[in-house]
Design goal:
There is one protein chain. This protein is of the alpha/beta class. It folds into two domains: about 190 residues, NAD(P)-binding Rossmann-like Domain (Rossmann fold), CATH 3.40.50.720; about 80 residues, N-(1-d-carboxylethyl)-l-norvaline Dehydrogenase, domain 2. About 45% of the residues lie in helices and about 20% in strands. The chain contains eleven helices and ten strands. An eight-stranded mixed beta sheet has the order 3-2-1-4-5-8-9-10, sandwiched between helices. Strands 6-7 form a two-stranded antiparallel sheet. Helix 8 runs parallel beside helix 11. The longest helix has 23 residues. The chain is globular and about 55 Å long. The N and C termini lie far apart (about 50 Å). Bound molecules: nicotinamide-adenine-dinucleotide and SN-glycerol-3-phosphate (G3P).
C-alpha cells in the first residue's frame, strides 16, 4: 500500500491527550527519519480554551508542546495540531486512533465518506463499547463504521515514561493482514519502544481493556493497606479471570497473548503506576466517597 500523491505514507493521529501526545511525538521522530513516510504527523485536537484564553491547538503549534496533557515535553516541529477532524485526516493513509473509548463512535460517524481509499488504522484505545447486543471491541467499531482494516497496539505503556524515552515494549494485534501489522510495527519501533506483532487482535485488545478492572481492584487493596501479598494475589487471579473472560467472548484468543507486553506486563505496570489504580486508591482512602 502506498499513498498515491507522493509514494510516502502520511500519518494522522486522532486524539491529543496524554498518550495521544506521546504517540504523536514518538511517531514524528520516526517519520522524520524513515524515507517511506511523509515527515509531518497531523494530530487532531479536541479543541479547548486554555485558562490564558489561548486555543489548545494554537498553543501546541506555537510551543510544540501540549501544555495541558503533556507539559514540559517537546513534541517535534513536525507534529501539527489540527482542531478540524476532516482536515486532519484528509491526506492520511495511516490513521492512529487514541481518544478515550467513549468518543470513538461519534468520531467515526463524522469520518464516514471523508477518508482516502485504502486507508489503514490502528487503535491504541484501551476500552470497549458495551451495547445492548453485547460488548463491541473498538477496532471492530472502527472497521464496521469506516470499512477499513484496523490493528491494535497495547502494552505496558504508561505514557509519561515513554515521553522521556524510558524503555517499554508493546504488542500489535492483527487479523490476517500481517503486512499492514508489520508496517505499523516499523512506524512505532524505536530503540526505547520495542514492538512485537501477534495474530490475535481480540486477545491483545481485551488484555488492554480488562487490565483496567484489575488495576481498580489493586488500587482498592492499596487504599485499604492490605499489603503486597494481597495485591499480588489480586493480580494473579485477575490475570486468570482476564483470560477466562476473553476466551468466553472470543474462543480464538490465544494463551500466549497473555505473556506478551499487552498481557501480564501491562497488568503489572497499571497495577503499580497507572491512573486507574490511583483513582481507586484515592476512593478507598476517602472512605468510598468521591474525592473530587
Ligand atoms: N495515558 C496513558 O498512559 C495511556 C497509555 C496507554 C493507553 N492509553 C489509552 O489511550 C486512550 C486515550 O487516553 P489519553 O491518556 O491519551 O487521554 P487523556 O485521558 O490524557 O485525555 C483525554 C482526552 O480526551 C479529549 N476529549 C475530551 N472530550 C472529548 C470529546 N467530547 N471528544 C473527543 N475527545 C475529547 C481531551 O481533549 C483529551 O485529549 C485511552 O483509551 C487510554 O486508556 C493511555
Ligand atoms: O494510567 P492508566 O491506568 O490508564 O494506564 C495507562 C496504560 O494503559 C498503562 O499501560
Amino acid at each position: 500500500m502506498e499513498n498515491g500523491h507522493t509514494g510516502k505514507h502520511r500519518v494522522a493521529v486522532i486524539g491529543s491527550g496524554n498518550w495521544g501526545s506521546v504517540a504523536s511525538r514518538l511517531l514524528a521522530s520516526n517519520t522524520a527519519k524513515l524515507p517511506s513516510f511523509h515527515d509531518e504527523v497531523r494530530m487532531w485536537v479536541f479543541e479547548e480554551t486554555l485558562p490564558t484564553g489561548e486555543k489548545l491547538s494554537e498553543s501546541i503549534n506555537q510551543a510544540h508542546e501540549n501544555c495541558k496533557y503533556l507539559p514540559g515535553i517537546k513534541l517535534g516541529t513536525n507534529v501539527i495540531a489540527d482542531p478540524d477532524l476532516e482536515s486532519a485526516v484528509k491526506d492520511a493513509d495511516m490513521l492512529v486512533f487514541v481518544t478515550p473509548h467513549q468518543f470513538v463512535e461519534g468520531i467515526c460517524k463524522k469520518l464516514v465518506g471523508k477518508l482516502r481509499p485504502g486507508v489503514e488504522a490502528i487503535s491504541l484505545i484501551k476500552g470497549m463499547e458495551v451495547k445492548m447486543e453485547g460488548p463491541c471491541m473498538i477496532s471492530k467499531l472502527i472497521t464496521d463504521t469506516l470499512g477499513i482494516n484496523c490493528c491494535v497496539l497495547m502494552g505496558a505503556n504508561i505514557a509519561n515514561e515513554i515521553a522521556v524515552e524510558k524503555f517499554s515494549e508493546a504488542t500489535i494485534g492483527y487479523r490476517e493482514d500481517k503486512e499492514a501489522a508489520n508496517r505499523w510495527a516499523k512506524l512505532f519501533t524505536t530503540p526505547y519502544f520495542l514492538v512485537s506483532v501477534v495474530e490475535d487482535i481480540e486477545g491483545v485488545e481485551l488484555c488492554g481493556t480488562l487490565k483496567n478492572v484489575v488495576a481498580i481492584a489493586a488500587g482498592f487493596v492499596d487504599g485499604l493497606d492490605m499489603g503486597n501479598n494481597t495485591k499480588a494475589a489480586i493480580m494473579r487471579i485477575g490475570l486468570r479471570e482476564m483470560r477466562a473472560f476473553s476466551k468466553l467472548l472470543f474462543p480464538s484468543v490465544r494463551d500466549n497473548t497473555f505473556f506478551e507486553s499487552c498481557g501480564v506486563a501491562d497488568l503489572i505496570t497499571t497495577c503499580l503506576g497507572g491512573r486507574n489504580r490511583r483513582v481507586a486508591e484515592a476512593f478507598a482512602r476517602n472512605g468510598g466517597k468521591r474525592v473530587f
